[in-house]
Write a structure and sequence with these properties.
The complex is a heterodimer of chains A (115) and B (112). By secondary structure, chain A is mostly beta strands. In chain A, 0% of the residues lie in helices and 50% in strands. Chain A has strands spanning 5-7, 10-13, 19-24, 31-37, 44-50, 53-57, 64-68, 74-78, 87-94, 105-106, 110-114. In chain B, a hairpin with a 2-residue loop joins strand 7 (56-59) and strand 8. Classes of the chains: A mainly beta (115), B mainly beta (112).
Chain lengths: 115, 112
Amino acid sequence: ETGVTQSPTHLIKTRGQQVTLRCSSQSGHNTVSWYQQALGQGPQFIFQYYREEENGRGNFPPRFSGLQFPNYSSELNVNALELDDSALYLCASSLEGQGASNEQFFGPGTRLTVL
Amino acid sequence: GDSVTQMEGPVTLSEEAFLTINCTYTATGYPSLFWYVQYPGEGLQLLLKATKADDKGSNKGFEATYRKETTSFHLEKGSVQVSDSAVYFCALSPTSYGKLTFGQGTILTVHP
């Protein structure tokens, strides 16, 4: 069973640029959640995708957007990067639905640095 | 809104010492409560969980009891090991699934 994978591992961008982060969910999972973890802080919920639809969103501006594909992998896109977007971006997959365990399994994260 | 507060860290202990990391929460209704652990260079791993009041979650010698009356979910371990050195996060979810709200994390360092 393959766990949650994320790419790239590290990324450096400049202010104003756009970035796309990718996540492959664990086999059999249908839901992906994205979190932003600033240095020394706990993760903050960005949004969740369930069966290719956004299923909840945290307090992040519209320049944070996402997609989920038919194979349940997902992308996080951030436009007009700001210095404060520098963080570890975590993806978590889970199996949602009646009778499912709903436990979220986290990937290792993508470290984004905005200069 | 929902929030989680963890004790200030970091925590430094000698091997075999007793560990307590305090966690309190604010939420409406009856959230599910979790402890996650993050080892250096790795993603978050679920350590234990409790889904209703008075439930005790346990795993790898760690325990935490869901206390509705004190809105707390303190993490304990009777005898820590060097391998327990990591960052520990308390979290809640409004149901047994959905978004997680995390505390700020507590760094634990265990010396031989």
